[in-house]
Amino acid sequence: MLHARLWEEDPAKRGAPAPFTPVEQDPPVDELSAEFPIRLTTGRRLDSFNTGVQSEHYATPIRRPETLNLSPEDAGRLGLAEGERVRVSSRRGSVEAPVHVDEQLRAGLAFMTLHFPEQVETNVLTLDAWDPKSGTAEFKATAIRVDKLGSAAPAGAETQHAKAEN
Length: 166
Known about the structure:
Helix content is 10%, strand content 20%. By secondary structure, it is of the alpha/beta class. The protein has one domain: Barwin-like endoglucanases (Beta Barrel). The radius of gyration is 19 Å and the shape is globular. The relative contact order is 0.22.
């Protein structure tokens, strides 16, 4: 239980509202730049709730392979079509994935899941920054770039394959 520690010191407070403290917003650690202009956020899809523990053993018509979801504006600006494979790079590494044009995303924001590491190791892209108050990892705010396959990788970016060998 993530928040059990809130009641450990005083069991009489169990069932009482959890204490909340307002904090100043800090911007993401991984800043956007000209080299990495798109913000990648990771999460779950509807068909893989609870990390797939309850849903991985049945078929569903909404389940699809891993993709890099881009807004129509970003896909158009980058000259990318639905299903086209691209290299997704962050300051930590690169992976390849097919593009899915998602009408629900705003320009500048991309989405990938963590459900299919055998297809795409999304966490190669994410960073190891942690929120000092909650202890949660900053998987939701990774600066990335997207390149058509055949384009040069950004300087210093390792591929998923190269990282796995080290």
